Amino acid sequence: MVNEPKVSQPIIFVGGAPRSGTTVTHALLCTSSRTNNYHPEISYVTPILSSYGIGMASWEGHTRAFFAEREHFRLHIQEIAAGVFGHLNRVFGMPEMLCVKDPMLTPHFPSVNRILVGRARFITVVRHPYDVVRSRQEVAAKKGTVFDVLAVEAVAEEYLKFYLHLDNPGLAPVLMTFRYEDLLEEETLRRLREFTGFHDLSPDNVWNVGRQRETGEVPAVADAATQDPWYSPKYGGAIQIERRLNPLEPRYRRIADRICGNFMERFSYTAND
């Protein structure tokens, strides 16, 4: 008989497509005294948690050779995850709740919910696809890589994949979704506080938490090398949801409209935004 690992404190996962505002949202949530300080993405954890979905997808051909039944496999991954988050919990000083993020984990939210049943909650940030594509164009320019029609199509198609979980009925009770453009709206802040229990989160205190409270040190995000192509000058300052870059050019807008049109309509995005 496999014993289910003891459930610890809740974990809130922040997700969304890359360049959708997950970093700023995570930093905002980390202003609460009930959770950990702001920290970088848990990118090393993502392959561990995504392994459950991979194993289930190849159950018949591979995974069943190592487990008597699917539930044993789930508990195996859950036990590994318990060790991972136990380590993070200690690193963060044993907060009441954990709040973590890695955009690349977002498509795996249904698997994470199965692994950490009763423990995980999910916040998904949606942003206008024009702005996501435009931001990815900037990243490509910094990298010196080609950003053409094919690249735009790839980014737009990837964008949709990061939001497939929104229609997963199993996530409905533990999922909150909002538009990045509405982050500072009172209704959005109210919903975030209610959903997370972080009633003291404060947009005015973003980035100014953790060690900085006692030492005066600049948050790690503000020390990030500006040579990092993914780094944004919005990091480390007051929350600014206004567009920083010039608009996406019309030919690329048409591609985003074709691929993401239904999604845009769902979240009330228009070509005039």
Could you describe the 3D structure shown?
The chain is of the alpha/beta class and 273 residues long. The protein has 9 helices and 4 strands; from the N terminus they run βαααβαβααβααα. It has helices at residues 22-29, 46-57, 70-91, 109-115, 129-143, 149-161, 186-196, 211-215, 250-266; strands spanning 11-16, 98-101, 120-126, 175-179. It has a 4-stranded parallel β-sheet with strand order 2-1-3-4, sandwiched between helices. Helix 5 packs across helix 6. It is globular, with a radius of gyration of 19 Å. Residues 1-7 have low confidence and may be disordered.
Helix-strand layout with pairing:
Layout (H helix, E strand, L loop, with lengths): L10 E6 L5 H8 L16 H12 L12 H22 L6 E4 L7 H7 L4 E7 L2 H15 L5 H13 L13 E5 L6 H11 L14 H5 L34 H17 L7
Parallel strand pairs: 1-2, 1-3, 3-4
